[in-house]
Amino acid sequence: MANITEVAKAFTDFYYQTFDTSRQQLVPLYRPQSMLTFEGQQFTGVQDVVEKLVSLPFQKVRHQVSTVDAQPGNPNGDTIIVSVTGALLVDDEQNPQMFSQTFHLVPEGGSYWVFNDIFRLNYA
After folding, report:
1. Phi-psi region for residue 74, left (φ > 0), alpha (ψ -120 to 50) or beta?
2. Residues 6+ away with beta carbon under 8 Å from 117
3. Residue 16, φ and ψ in degrees, nearest 5
4. CB-based contacts of 109: which residues, under 8 Å, 6+ apart?
5. Chain centroid to CA 117: how far?
6. Do residues 63 and 53 make contact, with C-beta atoms less than 8 angstroms apart?
7. Of 112, 109, 89, which is closest to residue 99 (Cα–Cα)?
């Protein structure tokens, strides 16, 4: 098995680069059983998850990742839990919004897909 910290870093780099440039291109990362909880709202399945991400009310976004932590997602060590914190800038805002996001990644054919995705903005 690949080093989970390396997998987590590679995944988050790819995810946020793709999110920031073309959210529709995130489709291959999700499956019919994938779940997204976005600010308390739950979405299930590829179509609902990606539809939510694409419909977010901003034109430009840039994620600045501060931390990426990873742990095995089960005793077999084949799935990975990834916890991310950082800041994001939307449209022409100058003040970043702090966020946290957690992914549960499942291996498939030499890659990983997102089983669970939990996103929250963090307010002081």
Report:
1. beta
2. 30, 34, 35, 36, 37, 49, 101, 102, 103, 104
3. -75, -35
4. none
5. 6
6. no
7. 89
Record the tokens describing residue 97, joined without a space.
């919004």
Give residue-wise pLDDT tens across range 56-72: 988 899 999 999 999 99
Length reported for the chain: 124
Q: For residues 77 and 86, is the Cβ–Cβ distance under 8 A? A: no
Cα angle 45, 75, 46 (rounded to 5 degrees) comes to 10
Give per-residue pLDDT as tens, 21-51: 999 999 999 999 999 999 999 999 999 999 9
Tell me the torsion sign for CA atoms 19, 24, 29, 114: positive
Cβ-contact 18, 80 below 8 angstroms: no
Burial class (CB in 10 A: 0-12, 13-18, 19+), 52: middle
Task: Report whether pLDDT(1) > 60.
Answer: no
Query: Could you tell me how far CA 56 lies from the centroid of its own chain?
Result: 14
Cα three-residue angle 105-46-107, rounded to 5 degrees: 25
